[in-house]
Design a protein that fits this description.
The protein is built from 2 helices and 27 strands. The protein is mainly β. The strands form 7 sheets. It has a 9-stranded antiparallel sheet, with no helix packed on it. The chain is globular and about 55 Å long. Strand 4 and strand 5 form a beta hairpin. The longest helix has 7 residues.
């Protein structure tokens, strides 16, 4: 029980990364690195006491730069997609990196996933606080943005992420975590037999480039309805137009409203019996089923990851919310605090 710090490799420019291992008293541990404030691993017992890592990740920092894919990283200043890679705030137009079909995905090539964050260990709280100063104009966004992301491993077997930030100009703030989970073990193969419950009545429909159209589409009677638990794979090959556009599930769910941090999802691994509950105070969550993963990504244990070997539940403001008045606004006012919380709780 406690926190240990080890080396995690060196970037081409000479910067060194550190790996922080947090272990609680129940046999659960997590690994996070200051490169991208990334969740590298989570070792969780199963119903028979077998310990396995349930987070897809790489062996060291050089592999994170080599293979990419945002595995486990904190995404910012704005996660997900912004149509046309531009937006206007207070009459001023801002231009972003066009890194996907002329649009902006995860804030471009120089996102928070590729920086070394400052790290501070809090042994008593079993936490690591990562901090980053994003200057005015960074990635194309207005305002000096000072942000922290705190990872805490609790004795209730929760991975708690607290995001905080303040800007000196009105800006967009929409941070998330891009972890890929496989509750039977990160190298156990397909997640299609995992059972998912998701507390959402609608999705934000998208166009052919995965940019929201502005339509809030009910899930009732569609493959997107997980209000009653079902396997992820049951409807993933449907001819539904939204499934076809995403190559599977890669959509923002409109979460049912609730006060503060509330339970929004639950997933169970079929072989291990591991259960993961997700709690957040965010308005949306991106459910992604690794539709574009391929065998060129080599895992931390030397094996290849394949399509649909992991799933993501990325809590967030809706994608492209800056362009849709009917979506909750992602604008952070100057001097106000951005603060969201997401919790992944494990049981076995």
């Amino acid at each position: 029980m406690g926190i240990t710090v080890t080396d995690f490799g060196k970037l081409e420019d000479g910067r060194c990364a550190k790996l922080f291992t947090l272990a609680n008293g129940n046999g659960m541990s997590i690994e996070v690195t200051d490169f991208g404030a990334t969740l590298v691993g989570a070792v969780v017992p199963d119903r028979e006491g077998k310990h396995e890592d349930v987070i897809l990740g790489y062996a060291d920092v050089t592999d994170y730069t080599k293979y990419g894919g945002f595995l486990g990283a904190v995404i910012g200043r704005s996660g997900n997609r912004i149509g046309g890679a531009e937006f206007t705030i207070n009459g001023v137009k801002y231009t972003l990196d066009k890194n996907e079909n002329g649009n902006n995905l995860h804030s471009g090539k120089q996102g928070y996933d590729s920086v070394i964050w400052e790290a501070k260990v809090d042994e008593s709280a079993l936490s690591v606080v990562f901090s980053h100063h994003s200057p005015d104009g960074d990635q194309g966004y207005p305002g000096n943005f000072d942000v922290t992301v705190t990872y805490t491993l609790t004795e209730e077997n929760e991975i708690r992420l607290d995001y905080r930030g303040v800007s000196d100009k009105d800006t967009i703030a929409n941070l998330t975590n891009h972890s890929y989970f496989n509750l039977d073990g990160h190298e156990s193969g397909s997640i299609l037999e995992h059972t998912l419950w998701l507390n959402a009545d609608a999705i934000t429909a998208v166009d052919a480039e995965s940019i929201p159209t502005g339509e809030i589409r009910p899930v009732d009677g569609t493959p997107f309805d997980f209000r009653e638990p079902k396997t992820i794979g049951r409807d993933i090959e449907s001819d539904d137009d939204q499934i076809q556009k995403g190559g599977g599930y890669d959509h923002n769910y409109v979460l049912c409203p609730g006060e503060g941090v509330r339970k929004i999802a639950e997933v169970v691994g079929p072989k291990s019996g591991r259960r993961m509950e997700v709690f957040t105070d965010c308005v949306g969550v991106q459910f992604y089923t690794g539709n574009f993963m391929d065998e060129t990504s080599i895992s931390k244990d030397g094996k290849a990851y394949h399509k649909r070997d992991g799933f993501c539940l990325e809590t967030q403001f809706f994608p492209d919310a800056i362009h849709h008045e009917n979506f909750a606004s992602p604008i952070l006012k100057a001097g106000e605090e951005y603060h969201t919380t997401t919790i992944y709780k494990f049981s076995w």
